[in-house]
Write a structure and sequence with these properties.
The longest helix is centred in the C-terminal third of the chain and has 69 residues, at about 240-305. This protein has helices at about 30-95, 100-135, 175-195, 240-305, 315-345; strands at about 15-25, 200-210, 225-235. A three-stranded antiparallel β-sheet has the order 1-2-3, with no helix packed on it. With about 375 residues, it is mainly alpha-helical. It has five helices and three strands. It has one domain (about 30-200, about 240-345): Outer membrane efflux proteins (OEP).
Length: about 375
């Protein structure tokens, strides 16, 4: 640099500064609409998490019931196999003594072989069901602390009474419906942002700092400096693009409306199916218990008749086969009834005692009314 006399000299200045983020003056609601859209997207994500959680709980419960069902059927097959092996040993003694025919002996051998096949099949199915349950739980069942003892399906009490006259508003707690609602709110808010794009945008960019000839007095009083640069964007040349964006956001809103309606229809269908199945499954279990009791009585009578020489062993063997089938059918019917209770829990969005939405009416974003 040169002084006023024309002589050169060296001067030092110290400067510190920082840039402050740009601000937009939201006169036409563009930023507010984008904020509401982002907030609704967040709420939709939270509802998706709840939906996944309810589905996981349901699948774990069903996997547990499946394992218990196969375990009971396997135990039944094992007991039946022991009974038939004992009957076969008696049949061999009677055959060797000439008191029975070869046909009776072969029938006993066939029943023993069938019981072994059923036991082997059920052992495999139980092991596979336990593996599936452990995959869902994420660890071996033996490593879970304070795990309650296994119960038989007849002792499970997960079925609760459903009061008559349940309001349809109960379905509003389903997370998939609330997720679809939040996505619809987000799409509606995006329309407000697309409309605001037709109006001018005013932004402010500010810089602040300090300047001083000496470093020691850089931040002393009077050394501050700041500046700002306003910017005005007039979208007069973007009318076609903005119009296309507005049409696109309206189309996306119509898609979300269709998805919302479909979600509600699916919810009503799932609840209706679960309630209808609930009544028929109760009747099915009751009737199957009557069938099982009748077959058990028939088996006892046929055994007594055979021992007294009134009837052949074929009647006893047939009644034994029918009793085993009736016992298996009863276990399977009880499993179906318990599975239906789980389906009803999931279709109601987590049961009858779930709390309200994550975002209450006061915290939901206020989207622009279209």
């Amino acid at each position: 640099m040169q002084s006023a006399t024309g002589k050169p000299f060296v001067s030092e200045y110290f400067q510190a500064g920082g840039s402050i983020a740009s601000y937009e003056l939201d006169f036409f609601g563009r930023v507010r609409s984008l904020t509401n859209a982002a907030l609704s997207q967040y709420f939709a994500t939270e509802e998706a998490r709840r939906s996944a959680q309810i589905s996981l709980v349901s699948e774990v419960a069903k996997a547990y019931l499946s394992e218990r069902s196969f375990a009971e059927q396997y135990e039944l097959a094992q007991n039946t196999l022991k009974t038939r092996e004992y009957t076969l040993s008696l049949a061999k003694q009677r055959f060797d003594a000439g008191a029975t025919s070869a046909l009776d002996l072969r029938d006993n051998e066939s029943l023993v072989a069938q019981a072994r096949v059923s036991a082997a099949q059920l052992a495999r199915q139980r092991a596979q069901a336990q593996n599936a349950l452990e995959v869902l739980v994420g660890k071996p069942l033996g490593t879970i602390e304070n795990l309650p003892a296994a119960m038989s399906l007849s002792d499970e009490r997960i079925i609760s009474d459903i009061p008559a006259g349940l309001p349809s508003d109960l379905l509003e707690q389903r997370p998939d419906i609330r997720q679809a609602e939040q996505l619809l709110l987000s799409a509606n808010a995006n329309i407000g942002a697309a409309r605001a794009a037709f109006f001018p945008r005013i932004t402010l960019t500010a810089n602040a700092g300090a300047i001083s000839p000496t470093f020691s007095s850089l931040f002393d009083s009077g050394t501050g400096a700041w500046s700002f640069a306003p910017q005005l964007v007039l979208p007069i040349f973007d009318y076609g693009r903005n119009l296309s964006n507005l049409d696109l956001t309206k189309t996306r809103k119509n898609i979300q409306i269709a998805n919302y309606e479909k979600t509600i229809q699916t919810a009503f269908a799932e609840v209706a199916d679960a309630l209808v199945a609930r009544g028929t499954l109760e009747e099915q279990v009751t009737s199957q218990e009557q069938v099982r009791n009748a077959e058990a009585a028939r088996y006892e009578l046929s055994t007594m008749r055979f021992r007294n020489g009134v009837a052949s062993q074929l009647d006893q063997l047939d009644s034994q086969r029918q009793l085993f089938a009736a016992d298996q059918a009863l276990i399977q019917a009880r499993q179906l009834r318990l599975n239906n209770a789980i389906d009803l829990y999931r279709s109601l969005g987590g049961g009858l005692s779930e709390t309200g939405p994550v975002a209450s009416a006061d915290t939901k974003p206020a989207a622009t009314t279209q």
